[in-house]
UniProtKB/TrEMBL annotation:
Species this protein is from: Variovorax ginsengisoli
Keywords: Signal
Family stated for the protein in its record: Belongs to the UPF0065 (bug) family.
Coiled coil location: none
Keyword Transmembrane carried by entry: no
Name by which UniProt lists this protein: Tripartite tricarboxylate transporter substrate-binding protein
High-level lineage: Bacteria, Pseudomonadati, Pseudomonadota, Betaproteobacteria, Burkholderiales
Cross-referenced InterPro entries: BUG, Bug_dom1
C-alpha cells in the first residue's frame, strides 16, 4: 500500500514536471497581454512598449500593451495579481506600483503577489531648479539649503511618488529642512519650478530631458550612482556632493502572477535579455531618458525588490509620508 502511494506521488511529480517543460517549450502559444498600470507616454509605458515590440518579434507572438491607469498603479497591478498564473497576463511593474503603493495604501496585492521575470529598465531622477536659481552647482545648492532651514520648497508629482521619496532622502541626508509641495503629476510641478514658484524638485530624466536640453531648467545632479546615457554631462549626487552613498532610482520590470511556472518565467527572461540588449530598444531608450539594464534573472529582481521594500518602508516611516 505504501509502495503504491509512493508510486502515485512520483507519477504526479513526473506529470507536473513534464507539464512545466511542455509549457516552457510551447510558450508563448498565443498573444501575451502586458498590463501597464499607468497612462500612455509615462516612463513605464514607454519602456514596456519598446520591449514588447522586440519580444513579439523574438518569441513569435504579439505582446499587447493594455494601459489600466489609476490608484497609483493599483488598478492594473491588482488585475494582474488576480489573473491566471499561466504567463499570458504580465505586469509592467515599477518601483511605484509594486513597492511603494502597498506601503502607503491598503491594496489587494503586494510585491509577493507577483513572480518577477526580469528588469527591463531603470530611470534615474534629476535634481532641477529654475535657470535663475542662485546656486550654480550641486554643492552650492546643498550649502544654500543647509544655511536656510525651512526657507525653500520642493515639488513632486504627488505624495509618495518616487520624486517625493528621493527629495525627502536628499533633504534628510544633507541635514536641511524644506517644504514639500505635492502636485497631481509631473507637468504642473515642472512648470512651477521653471517659473520659480517652487524652488527645486527631483523628477525622472524622461520628464525633464526636453526642459534640460532647451535650457529651461538647471540640472544639478542625478539620484542614481551611475550616469545617464541621455544626460551624460550630469554627474550623480554621489560624486557632485559629499553624499557618497546616494543611489535611488526607479526600476521597471515584467512580472507575472504569483505561481507562474519557473520554466515560463525563464523563457520570458531570455526574451527580456535579448530585448534590452538589442540596438532597437537601446536607441529608443536613449531618446526617452531610460537606462538599459545588465542581464537580470528573476531571482536577482526578487532580491532587488525585497531590499528596496525595507529601505523605502523605513524612509516612508521616518519621513511620515502619507498617500494623497
Amino acid at each position: 500500500m505504501r509502495f503504491s502511494s509512493l508510486r502515485f506521488v512520483a507519477t504526479c511529480i513526473a506529470m507536473c514536471t513534464a507539464a512545466s517543460a511542455f509549457a516552457a517549450d510551447s510558450y508563448p502559444a498565443k498573444p501575451v497581454k502586458v498590463i501597464v498600470p499607468w497612462t500612455a507616454g509615462q516612463a513605464t509605458d514607454a519602456a514596456a512598449r519598446a520591449v514588447a515590440e522586440r519580444l513579439g518579434s523574438s518569441m513569435k507572438q504579439p505582446f499587447i500593451i493594455d494601459n489600466r491607469a489609476g490608484a497609483g498603479g493599483g488598478i492594473g497591478s491588482d488585475a494582474v495579481a488576480k489573473s491566471p498564473p499561466d504567463g499570458y497576463t504580465l505586469l509592467a511593474g515599477s518601483t511605484g506600483s509594486v513597492t511603494v503603493n502597498p506601503l502607503l495604501s491598503k491594496t489587494n496585492y503586494d510585491a509577493d503577489s507577483f513572480a518577477p521575470a526580469g528588469l527591463i529598465a531603470t530611470v534615474p531622477y534629476v535634481l532641477i531648479t529654475a535657470e535663475s536659481f542662485p546656486a550654480k552647482d550641486a554643492k552650492a545648492l546643498v550649502a544654500l539649503l543647509q544655511a536656510n532651514p525651512g526657507k525653500y520648497s520642493f515639488a513632486s508629482s504627488g505624495n509618495g511618488s518616487i520624486g517625493h521619496l528621493i527629495s525627502e532622502l536628499f533633504v534628510s541626508k544633507i541635514g536641511a529642512k524644506a517644504s514639500h509641495i505635492p502636485y497631481k503629476g509631473s507637468s504642473g510641478a515642472i512648470v512651477d519650478v521653471i517659473a520659480g514658484r517652487v524652488d527645486f524638485m527631483f523628477d525622472s530624466v524622461t520628464s525633464v530631458l526636453p526642459h534640460v536640453k532647451s535650457g529651461k531648467v538647471r540640472a544639478y545632479a542625478l539620484s542614481s550612482a551611475k550616469r545617464s546615457t541621455s544626460l551624460p554631462d550630469i554627474a550623480p549626487l554621489a560624486t557632485a556632493t559629499d553624499l557618497r552613498d546616494f543611489d535611488l532610482y526607479a526600476w521597471i520590470g515584467l512580472m507575472a502572477p504569483k505561481g507562474t511556472a519557473e520554466p515560463v518565467l525563464n523563457a520570458l527572461n531570455r526574451g527580456i535579455q535579448d530585448a534590452v540588449m538589442s540596438k532597437l530598444v537601446k536607441d529608443q531608450y536613449l531618446t526617452l531618458g531610460i537606462e538599459t539594464v545588465e542581464a537580470s534573472t528573476p531571482a536577482e529582481m526578487s532580491k532587488l525588490i525585497a531590499v528596496e521594500r525595507v529601505r523605502l518602508g523605513s524612509l516612508i516611516k521616518a519621513s511620515n509620508i502619507k498617500a494623497d
